[in-house]
Amino acid sequence: GAGVSQSPSNKVTEKGKDVELRCDPISGHTALYWYRQSLGQGLEFLIYFQGNSAPDKSGLPSDRFSAERTGGSVSTLTIQRTQQEDSAVYLCASSQARGNEQFFGPGTRLTVL
Amino acid sequence: GENVEQHPSTLSVQEGDSAVIKCTYSDSASNYFPWYKQELGKRPQLIIDIRSNVGEKKDQRIAVTLNKTAKHFSLHITETQPEDSAVYFCAASEYGNKLVFGAGTILRVKS
After folding, report:
1. Which residues pair with B48 in a beta bridge?
2. Is A10 on the interface with B (CB under 8 A)?
3. What does the DSSP assignment read for B25-58?
4. Cα A7 to Cα A2: distance, rounded to the nearest angstrom
5. Among A33, A42, A103, whose Cβ lies nearest the Cβ of B102?
6. Which of A26, A111, A6 is nearest to A72 (CA)?
7. For residue range A7-38, what is the model confidence (pLDDT) as tens digits?
8. What is the pLDDT of residue A51?
9. Which pairs from B59-64 meet CB under 8 Å and 24+ separation?
10. A23 chain-B contacts, CB cut-off 8 A
11. Which residues of A touch B40 (CB under 8 A)?
12. Beta strands B19-25 and A5-7, pairing class
């Protein structure tokens, strides 16, 4: 079946602009995660959705970052007033339920000029 | 919160030799420890995972060991092949929630 998909694959934006990144999880997966990977670095947790529960936003680096998950499926990560330090690959993952294997999408490479 | 340290940052081995990557974690509540392989430009893919009720798990040439008392776990790859070359990440979480990742190990297998 189809894996996790993300769009766009690449996004170049100017400092100060807002961006939206999209994640389509594997069908039926109730848990969805966003991570950020800076060049040559490990993955940094951003936010986690599980079913209808309130999301765990503990990893969001500032109030410029927000995410939503509509209908328990597609998720959008929004970064407002982008800064150069926001440049990274943003990875989405989904799992069947909490505690199961997380399957990653291909990521969105964000470059802020 | 949880903190995961991973060593070494780079590892070069000769084809056919074994490779060992070690991670330590700080939160004794963590009970799920996956290992991901990431090839250049690709997404991370799970290669093996272990839960805290098990001390060792093996899958063909790959094995993971867990020492809960010392709070460390290790990845062992035997009979390495060139296609094992990649970046390997360990991670820890409580109940499989958010994963806290190590910084990664670049493994190079020389043929």
Report:
1. B35
2. no
3. ES-TT--EEEEEEE-TTS--EEEEEEETT-SEEE
4. 15
5. A42
6. A26
7. 999 999 999 999 999 999 999 899 999 999 99
8. 85
9. B64/B33, B64/B35
10. none
11. none
12. unpaired
